[in-house]
Amino acid sequence: MKAKPTGSDQNKVVMGKISRDEYSKLQKYCELNNESVNSVVKRLVAEELEDPVSHMLAGKNIFLYNKHKDNFSWRILLDKEIMAYIEDDLPAESLLQLQDAIQKAIDERNTYINKNKEESVPIPSKLVRKRI
To answer: pTM for the complete prediction?
Structure first.
């Protein structure tokens, strides 16, 4: 007959090194939420294992204008038909600045890949390397 497992056999200790700065942030988080470091780590591990999320998800950005507040809301409609609410109070200036930053990054990319026609799309160079 097999003996009943003791507490130490049922539970395992998990350790990992984090920087002092990360530990300080973890301590502040715990204090703000009135939780112990142990309970936070256990909860985060359990959440990740029970419902893991891919690092990349497919979806579509949706920006909505709220004329009563003169601001914008940002939503993401995932391909799984789930709506994620990112922000409900984006000033127009923030989106204009973002639009400008995106355009500059796209222009830089287009210069790098030698794109100069609107209808052109990126082609992996290894496909045409031997032919040019």
So the answer is: 0.52
